[in-house]
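Lab meeting prep.
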Amino acid sequence: MKQVKRNAAPTRLKTTQTKGAPVVPLPAQKTEPSETPAGQEKKQEVNPTKSELRAALPQTRNLDATIDVIEVLNRRVKGREKLIETLKDLKQFSLENKEDIVAETDSYFGCSLTITDSKRKEFTTRIPKLISLLVAYLQKVCEEKLTEIETEIVLP
């Protein structure tokens, strides 16, 4: 049977702690044997460098920071979905194309565009060329915004 030393001092790991960071054990210190004139080996301790200490610290986020990142990504994904739906609607939008229509004429071919502001003032037009130009411009803006949002949806 093995005998257990009762008065043995417990071994302790050296640790480092910065404000707000968890206690992290330092990497084991390197020992290099060196010979003494008497032929005995002597262990020499080498202190770890700052870069080794930083590498030993965990690279984790706290829960609040992780939730914030997820919320930002969720908003971007929802915005992307809304832009895709808007683009789909704009591409399905069709106007009767008459080549002889001049933009200044007030010809009505079954299409109209109404814009209402925050004071409930309205602007309505029934000019097909103007409406088609506005639809093309909206498609272009939505496609650019979609590209921008898609580049921002990246896990850090």
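Slide two material, second protein:
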Amino acid sequence: MIPVCRKVAMRVAAALVVLLAASAAQAATYTHVPTTYAWVDPSTQTAVTWSNPTLCNGFGDTVGDDAITAPINIGFSFTYGATAYTQLQVMTNGRLQFNQTYCGAGTQDIGPPRTYTLPYSDNNIPRTMKVYGADLDASPSGSGGGPGSTTCTAPCGVFYTATPLGVAPNRQFVVTWVAVPDWGSTGSFYNLQIVLNEDGSFVYQFGANSNLDGGHADIGWELTNGDWDTVTYTDIGSLASTAILFFDPLIATPTPTPTQTPTPTPPPPTLTPTFTATFTPTNTATNTPTWTPSNTPTNTPTNTPTWTPSNTPTNTPTATPTWTPSNTPTNTPTNTPTWTPSNTPTNTSTNTPTWTPSNTPTNTATNTPTWTPSNTPTNTATNTPTWTPSNTPTNTPTNT
């Protein structure tokens, strides 16, 4: 029987053997971790130009399907592996290549699901990076020959920063695939981005993608056939709005500070009208009585007017009224005459009709009033104010 401690030691030794064997099979210079998604706006970047005649080693074209650019200046010295580069080439199928011109066709089988050629590791494509190694077709009219038709017209295309972003030692070089379709896959598109940092790390970023044929292309890098790595993921669509940072763990772990933090351009604002209140006066009725005049206007005085005439009551018309005395003075006018005394009593009413008398008060009577004066003249009229003159006569109207 083997002691427990010896069993543990044997298991640890076996695990180390497996780990060493795996390391011998694949020595990975770079490790990767998720990082902050910070899509760099490609609208200010420069469209790539595919080499013509093609610089591809092996199969390639000049229209943008399986094509490669001439060497492009990075703008600073970028160390990939143990080698510093100042130039690179962009290959249509989601690759950056350093001192490497191999192209090759992109599709192995149209499926579905679609499969792709040149999976890592491959002796034909060392010193390359794959943001998504599909059969991307950036040709404006489509290269033809596939199961469906595709086109790549503006804004579709592949773009790069002709001048690096930022300042030394934190400059960045960016390559972006904008809405590029998969070869022969009508309606597919991919938004992909590679950012090279001056410190030697690099970032893959994934925008919106439409993977209609269900392909599963490589995401990774390869320095040599024995020094490479790929990222495990479920589907390219699940990576939308995510980013992956690759760095050499033997160098201090970088804290990426994007030089250009994208500022999304918002849609035109929806104009919300600002209501500037225009004062509209509200007519609030203050119990305004409706006047329905009868033949005899009714004056409702607040205070009973006090007449202060001289010893002889004076009516102030222009013309002197005519006195026709009889035994019984009877004044039966149809309309009550309007009196304009020297001191005019103030009638306070709400919306009281204004009477504008002429110089001569008009008494419109059916019968001419007959005055029969006695020692004390008394006016006895039907619905007519009764005059009881004394030294100070008072007019007390009943219905005036």
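Talking points for slide two:
The mean pLDDT is 73.
The CA atoms of residues 127 and 223 lie 4 Å apart.
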